[in-house]
Specification:
The protein has 128 residues and is α+β, with helices and mostly antiparallel strands. It contains three helices and five strands. A five-stranded mixed β-sheet has the order 1-2-3-4-5, with helices on one face.
């Protein structure tokens, strides 16, 4: 089996990114908590640049994503924070939800960010 391809989120990924976010909310038993839409994601990621991220694609399907945001440290300067890392596997609604710890550090270094933090780690499998 080939490893998924990882690339920066592009505008054509927005629909799939929002779908993964909504699926995660369902898994977390908070389906009504997602209030963002495709337009807001486009604005935040590509115009305001308040967040950035990557998608994992397998056979042309977006199966995972990482979304980060930048905060400012008075000691370190801009710092990248991982908001969500969603790794899907299987058909929508039957994905395995995981948040591996330790991803993203080298990307922060490449983008000049001083540090990173991982939030939301430890999601269990959606299959019980």
């Amino acid at each position: 089996m080939n490893a998924p391809q990882i690339e920066a989120i592009r505008p054509e990924h927005i629909k799939d990114v929002l779908q993964l976010i909504k699926e995660l909310a369902v898994y977390e038993r908070e389906p009504d908590a997602v209030v963002i839409d495709e337009d807001l994601l486009q604005d935040v990621l590509f115009h305001q640049r308040l967040a950035y991220g990557w998608v994992a694609e397998e056979k042309g399907e977006v199966i995972g994503l990482a979304i980060c945001y930048i905060r400012f440290s008075t000691w370190k300067g801009p710092c990248g924070y991982l908001e969500d890392l969603i790794v899907g596997g299987g058909a929508p609604g039957k994905r395995h939800w995981q948040a591996p710890v330790g991803s993203g550090g080298s990307s922060c270094q490449r983008t000049g960010l001083a540090q990173r933090a991982v939030a939301g780690a430890g999601l269990e499998s959606a299959r019980h």
